[in-house]
């Protein structure tokens, strides 16, 4: 019995050291990032927004982000937990597709980018693909009476290219830049 307790204590101490080293590496690594591991805060028109948390935009004059399974509540981050064979989930995605096509009638025959009709695992993804932004470009141009070329240039300027992953567009930053577009 005494040998088991001593072995368990040794294992506990070894694991505490390993986990402590791991946490130290992760913390030090986060300080190398541009935001130093903190939220990216944007101050706009006297309000504070978090660029790394999805925001809801309902107006047709703005780009819309991914749907949220948690109604954009950062305190309740979660996915829907419904798989692609779940009938209720498939109906919800189809309703989103129908709504999106109704909001963007000039895109009826264009394939809908998947992120515009499916929520992310956290329900708070702030980014869409450039294709998701271009899908909405004609609606934005029409609503704001701006040329489609200006909207496409704006999307290209707001696209963040990644060395390892796909390109992405932060919807909050894109909409703020859209408001500043003359």
Output the keywords.
182 residues, mainly alpha, 3-stranded antiparallel β-sheet, two-stranded antiparallel ribbon, 5 helices, 45% helix
Helix content: 40-55%
Q: How many alpha or pi helices?
A: 5
The N- to C-terminal Cα distance equals 77 Å
Taking the sheet with the most strands, its summary is: 3 strands, antiparallel
How much of the sequence lies in strands comes to: 5-15%
Radius of gyration from the CA trace? Answer: 22 Å
Query: What general outline do the C-alpha atoms trace?
Result: elongated
How are helices and strands ordered from N to C?
Answer: HEEHEHHEEH
Find the count of extended strands (DSSP E, 2+ residues): 5
| Category by helix and strand content | mainly alpha
pLDDT < 50 stretches: none
Provide the spatial order of strands within the biggest beta sheet. 3-5-4
Mean pLDDT: 91
Detailed description of the structure:
The protein has 182 residues and is mainly alpha-helical. It has helices at residues 2-30, 87-103, 130-144, 148-158, 171-180, and strands at residues 41-44, 47-50, 127-128, 159-160, 168-170. The strands form two sheets. The protein has a three-stranded antiparallel beta sheet. Helix 4 (148-158) packs across helix 5. It is elongated. The relative contact order is 0.12.
